[in-house]
Design a protein that fits this description.
heterodimer; A: 308 residues; 13 helices; 76% helix; B: 308 residues; mainly alpha; 66% helix; flat
Chain lengths: 308, 308
Amino acid sequence: MLRYILKRIVSMFITLWVVVTITFFLMHAIPGDPFTNEKKIPEEIMANLKHKYGLDQPLIVQYGKYLQNLTKLDLGISLKYKSRSVNDMIKEGFPQSAKLGLTASVFGISLGILLGIIASLNHKGFWDYFVIFIAIVGVSVPNFVFSSLFQYVFGVKLGWLPVARWGTPIHVILPAAALGFRLIAFQARMMRTSMLDILGQDYIKTAKSKGLTRSKVTRKHAIRNAILPVITILGPLLAGMLTGTFVVEKIFAIPGLGKFYIQSIQQNDYTVIMGTTVFYSAVLVFMIFLVDIAYGMVDPRIRLDEGQ
Amino acid sequence: MEQEIKLDKSMFEIVGKDVSKSMEITRPSMTYWQDAWRRLKENPVAIVALVLLILMFLMAAFGPYLQPYDYAEQDFMSINNGPSGAHWFGTDPLGRDIFVRAWMGARVSLLIAVVTAFINFTIGVFYGGVSGYRGGVIDNFMMRFIDVIFSIPSMLWIILLMVVMGSGIQTMILALSITGWGGMARLVRGQVLQLREMEFVMAAKTLGADSKRIIIKHLIPNSMGPIIINLTFAIPGAIFTEAFLSYIGLGLPVPTASWGTLANDGAQVLLVYPYQLFFPSMLISITMLGFNLLGDGLRDALDPKLRT
């Protein structure tokens, strides 16, 4: 297990290095320079500007410097808001995004698993078809549609919840619901399939014939085993959550990192785009690492496979 | 239990052996595809989805001609008109007819989705086929490469590429093609790894077939089921990505209409004129629903083992 974790940590850093390198050279492949969009600037000032951001040096030197700064966790300064560093933006925005993302995850995963269990216990019954319906709709409807719909129905028409903005816990409900819906859909479907598979296994029959109650068989034998595959798809789902926050934050005017990211894209603020991408990649790669480790701990079969 | 069973010779009669009858074919033999089609036809949900998608494509082709407006034509005498006999889906803040724009948008969105799905299919099948068939060091290297590149969500790569290349239909297709083939390559590799150990491949080798022939004639046709299923799910993914990019302002330049840009335009005036977001969202959702349901149906039809 320890060897596996070490191996994963090394591959995590290699992955990050590749991502940083590709991102860096992609961003520097943009024709022209970041200042050409602004009003005409005299030669000397232009030279000074470039010098300030180190853009007058050869690309490879800039790359080395960027890597060097990264080891100190310094992601650079915004090109548009000269006094703000990317680190500041992340410090300001990420906690908000994390709050939204975590709420949506907890809500989505627990409700999804619950729905999946209900569906499997009611195989081919009303609730089963109901859950299948929810799952298909949740996968097919883009989250910006859900966001707008929730905003319109619960915010404007019914007036139950605030339409937008951020701050109190009540502001989290609508965006988290909109963001978590896809998660519910995926988890419910996965859990249902997994449960149906497990419920057909021989050891469930054994448990039943031993005289255990239905609820005990479900809780102790079926759910515990069925939940394993649900953990594996958490990695890709977290990635989906991340891109989901971009849209949801924009619609609900939440001052999270996604909003900064979209803003920097619209303003061609290259250092912020680069820094945020690197940061997002680091967070994601780390999360997937955690999911893998968790999976390895929960399922002994995986440990054996990796030991080879 | 102890009941005695009386058997008498008179209860039996000699039927004899009829060689011609035992060789008789009682049912017409069916190819894999005929069999799959038969199973698909029996699935009403999949057929409804198929009909829905055909309608969608037909409307994308002919829809814009059902109304006498041009998709870019502005009419300041009728701005923000609700749905009516003159404008079936209403008009937008520039007085453009949303019905015509929605179907022009369908052309763009479906074109992007189908073309990128096809390119991803080609790259993925080639890459996965080579990786799986060669095996060993080459396979290991090719798969590590995919692991590293696709460990961060492709959406981040797509956003970076769109920032670098600028917006437009071609650049969007290019960005989606560069980033979308990882899943297909993994799938094809897995299939090929499994199939290449099978007896019919050994037979082909013994008969002197070279690698190219084995891959093209044996391995790929036999993996076609899962590949088609993957393709069916890839198309709604691309539609969603296009809508997402246009929604965050990285999409297509004005006045080009796509479902994403229409949804983005509609979202700006959601609180006052909800119908402007409703129609494009509905079309996106129906199409994605159609592909998802058809994909489910195809999975049941092409790969009965996976049926749940």
